Amino acid sequence: MSNRRNFLKGIAGAAAGAYVAGRPGNAAARQGAPARRQVTIGGKRVRVIDIHAHATVREVEPVVKGTEYERQAGGRPLGPDRIALIDRQGIDVQVLSINGFWWWEVKDRGLADRIVRAQNEGLARFVAQYPDRFVAMASTSLQFPDLAAQQLEDGVKRLGLRAAAIGGHVGGEDLSLPKFDPFWAKAAELGVVVFMHPGGADNIVREGALRDRGDLGNIIGNPLETTYFLSRLIFDGTFDRFPNLRVGAAHAGGYLPSYVMRTEVACDVRTNANCANRKRPKEYLRSQVWVDTMVFSDEGLRHLVNEMGPSQIVYGTDNPLNWPVTVDLVLDASWLSNADKEAILGGNLTKLLQTTS
User: Fold this and answer.
1) Is 345 in contact with 314 (CB distance < 8 Å)?
2) CA 210 to chain centre
3) Helices 181-190 and 145-157 sit at what angle, rounded to 10 degrees?
4) What is the pLDDT of residues 104-113, one digit of tens each?
5) Furthest C-alpha separation in the chain
6) CB-based burial, 167-202: b 16+ in 10 Å, e otherwise
């Protein structure tokens, strides 16, 4: 904890000016910023936490300058405009992660480590400017599983990061393979949720299959990759090897919750299934897996809750992308109790990320 305090103390001076400038009471902020939406349920002000938010940090740019990865570092730099966005949407706390996972292609262990360190420290610096509005997830170099475990521990203990962000595969390799167990073991030991965000299912479909109209690599590929990822963790026994492991899945868990009964009976009816899981698949979905609310419809949310239970659903927006996921999807669900609405919008994540209520 002393390392974390020293890091935060070192950046506090630089952060202070930006933090004061962004505070709601600042005159400039009052003039230019939209009103902050206050979400209430049954007349009670509730805290909204968004688990699914993308970002990049400038700190990685000098690390990759002059390398073949130089053009990968940019994209969604963080700034005060993110405050205005979440104010508008009624989000009190946003959980920031860097995805794309291009650094998993880096073969040089030292460079891979420097990239991750820059990303994690960059996120920690931004969070320190707005500590009541953001928390962040650690990046890791999962192509080197032992290094990834060290990076996760450093991110959590030194920098105060609250979770880990990962993709669905490393170079086409399934993350349920034993070689990745050092990372899963460390995540379970630290008690942090591992949030998986897919990248188009290029580990599953043939090259070019999802090209052309409809952006199918995103629309079909992303939920397909998530479905495959979760299914592997279940059937290959990863959840059993690490019973304290907690996994979050973007895009409502892909297709798995929507067709979960085919998964549920696979080991019973398919004689060649060769299942390693010790429990029924739905038991993992209701205890070790959390999914976000990116289903876009009342009926989609109803089905998700019915299959997984309200305790496993968390709010997610895919910010700063413009998907139509709002707090109103949950607030307008008349079939949900007020307690369940509050849990989905923020209560579940308050417990999962160990944030202050």
Assistant:
1) no
2) 24
3) 20
4) 999 999 999 9
5) 69
6) bbbbeeebbbeeebbbbbbbbbebebbbbbbbbbbb
Residue that the structure tokens 């690599």 belong to: 217
Rounded to whole angstroms, the Cα distance separating 280 from 263 reads: 9
Stated pTM of the model: 0.88
Q: Who's near 86: CB < 8 A, 6+ residues apart? A: 50, 92, 94, 133, 319
Q: How far is CA 23 from CA 28, 96, 154, 287, in A?
A: 9, 19, 30, 38
Rounded to the nearest 5°, which phi and psi values hold at 84? -60, -40
Q: How does DSSP classify residue 220? A: I
| DSSP three-state, residue 101 | coil
Distance CA(175)–CA(229), nearest Å, equals: 8
**Where do the domains of the chain lie, and which CATH numbers do they carry?**
2-352 (3.20.20.140)
d(CA 26, CA 37): 18
Give dist(CA 341, CA 347) in Å, integer: 9
Tokens at 303, concatenated: 């089905």
Return left, alpha or beta for 122; rule: phi > 0 is left, psi -120 to 50 is alpha, else beta. Answer: alpha
For residues 91-119, average pLDDT: 97
Query: In the chain, at which residue ranges do the beta strands (DSSP E only) sit?
Result: 40-41, 44-45, 49-54, 93-97, 134-138, 163-166, 169-170, 173-174, 193-196, 246-249, 289-292, 313-314
- Quick: pLDDT tens for 158-208: 999 999 999 999 999 999 999 999 999 999 999 999 999 999 888 888 788
The contacts of residue 268 (CB under 8 Å, 6+ apart) are: none
Please give the structure tokens belonging to residue 300.
């989609």
Determine the Cα–Cα distance for residues 296 and 308; give it in Å rounded to an integer.
17
Tell me: cis bond preceding 320? Omega within 30 of 0 counts. Answer: yes
